[in-house]
Design a protein that fits this description.
The complex is a heterotrimer of chains A (278), B (251) and C (290). Chain A has a domain at 4-193: ABC transporter involved in vitamin B12 uptake, BtuC (Orthogonal Bundle), CATH 1.10.3470. In chain A, 79% of the residues lie in helices and 0% in strands. Chain A has 13 helices and no strands. In chain B, the strands form three sheets. A six-stranded mixed β-sheet of chain B has the order 5-6-7-3-8-9, sandwiched between helices. Chain B has a three-stranded antiparallel β-sheet with strand order 2-1-4, with helices on one face. Chain B has a two-stranded antiparallel sheet with strand order 10-11. Chain C has helices at residues 5-30, 34-54, 58-76, 81-106, 112-121, 132-158, 160-165, 170-192, 194-211, 215-239, 252-269. Classes of the chains: A mainly alpha (278), B alpha/beta (251), C mainly alpha (290). Chains in contact: A-B, A-C, B-C. The B-C interface holds B 36-41, 83, 85, 194-196, 210, 228, 232, 236, 247-249 and C 80, 82-83, 284-290.
């Protein structure tokens, strides 16, 4: 059975940090999925690598590097990405950040270990000093998404209507990307870009398939992210295999389960035929 | 009659090209008006001008009684495609019409629920209030979108090509519904369409757009061979066959 | 610098990666599949780590992982861009998770940090010369596939309904394209790193589509732009050994990314021209009286 040791000492920080991160990922991921921003959700935390590398080169606190790069990436993707070439601008922003990161690393010549932890995280090494920062970011993300829940929903579902009612679609896009960028990128050094990304996409995609109620779908997205991360920590602790493996595979499995649930509901009769896009 | 919408000599330039000039008409309370014209004539442009989403180069647009209540315009856009996967019920879409622009989490209240249900009932969509909106048929989605526009109690309802992509039966149902809304709720309904025939039974006023200009009045006044020939600037014949109007290029 | 063996190999590998990516990139940008292209490069790392684990040539690992991921993406993938991106994201998340496991299992003896760093950024100067023929062969096969299918790829991207009406299988075309994309991208990822692979796939193609009108010309401009950026980048990286801070060069990936980006931004300075039509409806027939 699971060892009770995994709830003590340093592990307590891991549980707390991972729980907060799952809430952040579940909330921001929900809208990332609805708005089709999966690529941005991948690019922004990964691109934050440049911020960390640049900050360590300049000798300033990594947090500032991450914040600057996250906001710059979000603004770049939001402002330059017209509807047609959204993916191109996202890809170019990502490679620019990674290219700059490579330059900083090569100049400072001391960053390889951090590069690994930015990708795969060091969630088992979360220090007590990290926890308050993550908690603050978590609350900010929660407030940022909660505050704009309805306009985000309106611009995601019916951009044409939103525009006519004076809700700026471009403005909401940039707002969302900045909230997501701040919340996710600054938690990257703790949990890793890979873990964050997997937690954002899989649970949210599953949740939207399971229920048609917007509030419930958001809650489900957070709940699935929490279950994924808790199970993954327990399994990772027991097997000593990397946490990222369990979270990555778990996210994908939940997504497939959501698809299957949707498919079964569709076969179960009484449900409506999907209207072909006109 | 109170004009709820009044356009005075409106002109629109797009990229240095004059696309509309000297457009003047009014739409009054309880009136059903339709902007009719061929594809590319500027119908959508005209609707965007009325919504205030596109600047005019000349003239002015006055909304509401004496210019008051300008915000109370309900709008249903053209060819909207709602993702079949988005977690929104028909109910939620209508609720977004009530307060979708507001910040904060929506807290359920009895008043809010009643308003939403009333709007759904007005358009006959109460039966599928709990269905995922992306899985409704085209006609059902159109009803839900009309309820979305209607729930904030607008004085003017604007619809861009609401009949496009509908089957014959849904088309008739939507026209009947809109006619009923104009009469019973005393709101002004202004919609655009490329075919006037389905609208003939309910239409009070036609705004015929062609060649960058408009002609307005009742169907009998506007849709004549002479009138449309003047508008198009080339010979056009108007034929009336068994209650239907057909406009063909003459020679 | 042209007398140095590794540098010559770098020029050769760079040329192959740049031209094949440039050609296939035009189609992936037109089909709005930049995310898939980037993900396949990242996913190749899973294959690389797996091959390392079972002790076979990394080349096969990259190829197998890329093809498997392409199939998985298309299997869950849907036609709408939004849903396709999410399917891509789910596959990417799963694959990176597996990569983390492979790296963990495989690097209990070696340095895992070095491994992950070089997979991401690659090292064009240390490509083993004996993998060059394999890279050339795979690139030729992928480009030939795309060339044969080019008209279908355009048609299914621009007007899927029209393609279906003509009896073209949109799905099959999509799978074949993703497979070709996987081959190109994963092999360029092994040679030059995932970052450069994405930069060369997206940047030159997006630039070319802005400055040319026909897809044929776009392919040509894209390949030439990518080639120019890569060769200039390699030359600059070689020169940068003499730049501050003295002692070691600046990374190739930085120079190439910067050059690709400059090319893309310059394309905005030109008078914008339309991309090839996205939908036939936009080009719909002129007005006829209703």
């Amino acid at each position: 059975m699971f060892s009770s040791l995994m709830f003590t000492g340093l592990m307590a920080n891991t549980w707390i940090a991972a729980t907060i991160v799952a809430v952040i990922a579940g909330m921001t991921g929900f809208f990332a999925v609805l708005r089709g921003e999966a690529f941005a959700a991948h690019a922004i935390p990964n691109g934050a690598f440049a911020g960390a590398a640049g900050a360590s080169l300049l000798g300033v606190n990594v947090i500032w590097g991450l914040a600057v790069v996250a906001i710059a990436s979000a603004l770049g993707i939001g402002a330059l990405g017209s509807k047609a070439r959204h993916d191109v601008v996202t890809a170019l922003t990502l490679v620019l950040m990674l290219g700059l990161g490579a330059l900083f690393v090569s100049i400072s010549n001391q960053y390889a270990q951090q590069a690994y932890s930015l990708l795969f995280g060091e969630v088992f090494g979360v220090s007590s000093a990290d926890v308050p920062l993550i908690a603050v970011l978590g609350v900010l993300a929660l407030a940022g998404i909660g505050l704009a829940f309805r306009p985000l929903m309106l611009t995601s579902a019916m951009p044409e209507v939103a525009e006519a009612r004076g809700v700026s679609v471009r403005g909401m896009e940039i707002y969302f990307l900045v909230v997501m960028a701040l919340a996710t990128s600054m938690t990257v050094p703790v949990v890793g870009a890979l873990l964050l990304f997997s937690l954002m996409i899989g649970p949210a995609a599953a949740a939207r398939s399971i229920t048609a109620r917007p509030g419930l779908a958001l809650a489900l997205s957070v709940a699935i992210a929490l279950i994924t991360v808790w199970l993954s920590i327990a399994l990772s602790y027991q097997t000593n295999w990397p946490l990222g493996f369990f979270v990555g595979v778990g996210g994908a499995l939940f997504y497939l389960a959501g698809l299957a649930a949707r498919g079964l509901a569709g076969l179960g009769g009484g449900t409506r035929r999907v209207h072909p896009a006109a | 009659m109170f004009p709820l919408l009044q356009l005075d000599g409106v002109g629109v330039r797009l990229g240095g090209r004059q696309v509309l000039s000297d457009v003047s008409f009014t739409v009054g309370k309880g009136e059903f008006a339709a902007i009719i014209g061929p594809n590319g004539a500027g119908k959508t442009t005209l609707i965007r001008v009325i919504l205030g989403l596109r600047p005019t180069s000349a003239g002015r647009v006055i909304k509401g009684v004496n210019g008051a209540g300008a915000g109370r315009v309900g709008y249903v856009p053209q060819k909207i495609v709602i993702d079949s996967d988005i977690p929104l019920r028909a109910w939620d879409v209508v609720a977004l019409g009530l307060d979708g622009h507001k910040l904060g989490f929506p807290f359920p209240s009895r008043r809010r629920r009643e308003q939403v249900e009333q709007a759904l009932q007005d358009v006959g969509a109460l039966g599928y209030a709990d269905a995922r909106v992306g899985e409704l048929s085209g006609g059902e989605q159109q009803r839900v979108l009309i309820a979305h526009a209607l729930v904030s109690r607008p004085q003017l309802l604007l619809l861009d090509e609401p009949l496009a992509n509908l089957d014959l039966r849904s088309e008739q149902e939507i026209v009947t519904l809109l006619g009923k809304l104009a009469r019973e709720h005393e709101i002004a309904v202004l919609l655009s369409a490329h075919d006037m025939n389905p609208l003939l039974p309910v239409m009070d006023r036609i705004i015929y757009v062609a060649n960058g200009k408009v002609a307005t009045g009742s169907t009998d006044e506007v849709v004549t061979s002479e009138g449309l020939t003047r508008l198009y600037g080339h010979p056009v014949d108007v034929l009336r066959v068994r209650g239907r109007v057909v406009v063909v290029a003459g020679d | 610098m042209l007398t140095s063996g590794p540098v010559l190999t770098a020029f050769l590998i760079g040329a192959i990666a740049a031209t094949t990516s440039g050609v296939i990139g035009v189609f992936s940008v037109l089909r709005t599949q930049s995310f898939a292209g980037h993900s396949l490069a990242d996913i190749a790392t899973t294959g690389g780590a797996g091959a390392f684990l079972v002790g076979v040539n990394q080349f096969w690992g990259f190829l197998v992982a890329g093809l498997a991921a392409a199939t998985a993406m298309e299997a869950i993938g849907v036609q709408r861009r939004r849903d396709r991106d999410i399917a891509t994201g789910v596959v990417l998340g799963g694959a990176l998770g597996i990569a983390a496991l492979f790296l963990y299992l495989g690097t209990q003896h070696t340095s895992r940090t070095g491994a992950s760093f070089s997979i991401l950024f690659g090292s064009i100067f240390v490509v083993a010369p004996d993998t060059v023929p394999a890279i050339i062969a795979a690139g030729v096969v992928a480009v030939a596939t795309v060339a044969v299918l080019s008209r279908r790829l355009l048609l299914t991207a621009v007007a899927p309904e029209l393609a279906r009406a003509r009896g073209v299988s949109v799905r099959l075309t999509g799978i074949i394209f993703l497979a070709a994309l996987a081959v190109v991208v994963s092999l360029s990822a092994v040679a030059i790193g995932a970052v450069l692979s994405t930069a060369l796939l997206v940047g030159p193609a997006a630039t070319a589509l802005r400055v040319t009108r026909s897809p044929g010309k776009a392919v040509l401009v894209s390949a030439v732009t990518g080639l120019a950026a890569t060769w200039t980048g390699i030359a600059l990286a070689y020169e940068s050994y003499y730049w501050p801070p003295a002692g070691h060069g600046w990374p190739v990936s930085f120079f190439v990314v910067a050059l690709v980006l400059v090319a893309y931004l310059l394309s905005y300075a030109r008078k914008p021209r339309r991309m090839p039509p996205r939908s036939p409806h936009e080009e719909a027939a002129e007005c006829s009286p209703a």
